[in-house]
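REVIEWER CHECKLIST
Item 1: Sequence provided? yes
Item 2: Single chain? yes
Item 3: Sequence as submitted:
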Amino acid sequence: MLPASNFAGKWAGYLVEILHVILSFIVFLSLDFLETLLCVMYRCLDEFFEGKAPHCYCEKRTDGEEENEQSETLCGRKNLFGQMRFPGNPRRGKECDKVTSDHQHQLVNRWSDCGCESCVSWMKAGDQKLHFVVKEPSQDSSEGSKGNPIENVIFLHGFLCSSSIWTETVFQNLSESVKGKYRLFAVDLLGFGKSPKPRDSLYTLREHLDMIEQSVICPFDLKSFHLVAHSMGCIIALAVAAKYSKSVKSITLVAPPYLPSSKDGASLAVLNRLAGRRLWPPLLFGAAFMSWYEHLGRCVCFFVCRNHRAWESLLKPLTGRRDLNFIIMDLPRHTHHSAWHSMHNVICGGAKYMDDYLESLIENKVKLYVIQGDRDQVIPIECSINIRRKVPNAEVTIVPNANHNSVILGREKDFTETLEQIWVSSADINGTGPG
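Item 4: Structure as written out by the authors:
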């Protein structure tokens, strides 16, 4: 028989959970209603400022969109007020699908996005390639590496980040031997950092993959390379590795969002797991708020991203620093359109392709490494365990006392040393090939 204290503690836990469920239901019900009102408001504002209101995803689709590589979560999110008819809020049915046909690469800035020089500089580039930073092998360090071919490494960042997470960490802590032998590419993914942010792009996994090919792999004629990716970038890295399985020497995934499930419900399963409609913990509530509500999320982006220069001006005197930390600078360097679609079409929509990608790596014996912190509250640690079950030969490292970001930040030197060991061991296994 349980002691009275244990019995009371057990029931207290049940009561707290019930209260949490009730409060979560009330809060998200209110947000559902507010989202419906904002749908009407943004339709009116878009028509006023631009003459035409773009289609949103408030209505459930009426026919298949999977062929368009869009996630079912875009139009499949539940909203109890979604079927209400407000003036100016017509039911759209199949119009949800029309978004995919208007691909003319509009280079006009949206009225609710920032129009400063740094945010729209990509529009002036003629080729519309991704922005990336290349660290070429240093001549001094390469003296001892003469006769050995240069090896290539492609780095892909996570959600709401940029190539800075690599250039400010790994690039600064390379050993002399690696500096002379490795050429590093840190890429700003489509829709983030200094890369293009076309407002008519759907930011599907295919578009991200195509842009990496057109910007890095093909122009530099990369015959072989290593891949390193964090968070959302892991899904894109797996897509690259699956297509170039004969060229990839190793792939290192840091906090990969992998939740195995049936292909039919994979996208919604990921949304509910990574952005469940709950108030606690706060990170989960924030993810749910931005992932379930298209128009509420646009309000946040309007407040934060469009006014990022004002926030930066306020933060500089408060922090006493002339240059703010790159994490703060990277956070608003996206549009709501690019972040919204990347979240749904890559993180959620990419779930249905993950098993196929991993099976391709197994078949081609690509060396897979996984690193994750044991205190990660963004990506459940079970994701890394799932990969180990799917790929028995994968080497999984769980870093103690590290969260989603501190698995890299704050331990840059150790993290870089781990990467270098992976590259060297992969070269020993595969043999040194052409760069």
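Item 5: Key structural point noted by reviewer: The beta strands are 132-135, 151-156, 182-187, 225-230, 248-254, 367-373, 395-399.
Item 6: Recommendation: ____
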